[in-house]
Amino acid sequence: MNKKLWKEAIRRALIGMPIGLAIGTVITIINSLNVGDGNYYPVVPALIQDCGSEMNAVLIQALCNLLYGAVVGGSTVVYYTDWSLAKMSIVHLIAISLSVLPTAYFMHWMKHTFVGFLVYFGVFLLVYAILWLISYRRARRSVEALNRKVQTGI
Fold first, then answer.
1. Residue 139: how many CB atoms within 10 A of its CB?
2. What is the Cα–Cα distance from 150 to 25, expressed in whole angstroms?
3. DSSP code per residue over 58-127
4. How confident is the model at residue 154, as a pLDDT?
5. Cα-based torsion angle of the residue sequence 144, 74, 103, 59 in order, rounded to the nearest 10 degrees
6. Contact present, 57 and 107 (Cβ < 8 Å)
7. Measured between alpha carbons, how far is 32 from 40 in angstroms, rounded to an integer?
8. CB atoms within 10 A of CB 87
9. Which long-range contacts (CB under 8 A, 24 or more apart) does 54-58 make?
10. Taking the mean position of all CA atoms in its chain, how far away is CA 91?
């Protein structure tokens, strides 16, 4: 990657950090609402046990959410390379996976079994595929609109 792309990756990573933290917080609120007992659960109980206290667990989860957001944000620069769409998508998927899966395992967002990993990874791939298809269709429509303008001379 060239220097300009690295700068853009860093810029996007810095933007992604607070987004990752916000998404992580929203997820804890949704999970707490799903429990339905009127309490807020900032982390899963197993993480509290691993970290020794709820505060340590919350801090570690927040740092992981910041890191996760940075990787997700920064890795989008692969779509500004001159690689094929397949290569860009595979590199992006690998980068995201290398961030998401260890974080999800460590944070106890998945069961610590092979089946738990497969289920989590399957859901992750499904969400990734849906978001990829939405982005692809949006980009394709933009290109088609530009082509129409070029053809009509507008």
1. 12
2. 45
3. HHHHHHHHHHHHHHHHHHGGGGGSSS-HHHHHHHHHHHHHHHHHHHHHHTTSS-SSHHHHHHHHHHHHHH
4. 66
5. -130
6. no
7. 5
8. 12
9. none
10. 14
Q: Return d(Cα 8, Cα 134) in angstroms, integer.
A: 23
- pLDDT for 6-29, tens place per residue? 999 999 999 999 999 999 899 899
The one-letter code for the residue type at 63 is: L
- Measured N-to-C along each axis, helices 85-106 and 114-152 cross at an angle, to the nearest 10 degrees, of 150
| Cα-based distances in Å from 151 to 26, 137, 145 | 46, 21, 10
The domains of the chain are located at 3-109, 111-154
Structure tokens at 70: 């940075």
Between vectors from CA 33 to CA 27 and to CA 36, what angle results, nearest 5°?
A: 150
Q: Name the DSSP class of 53.
A: S
- Locate 118 and state its tokens: 């497969």
pLDDT in tens, 111-120: 999 999 999 9
Tracing tokens 């060239």 back to the chain, one arrives at 2
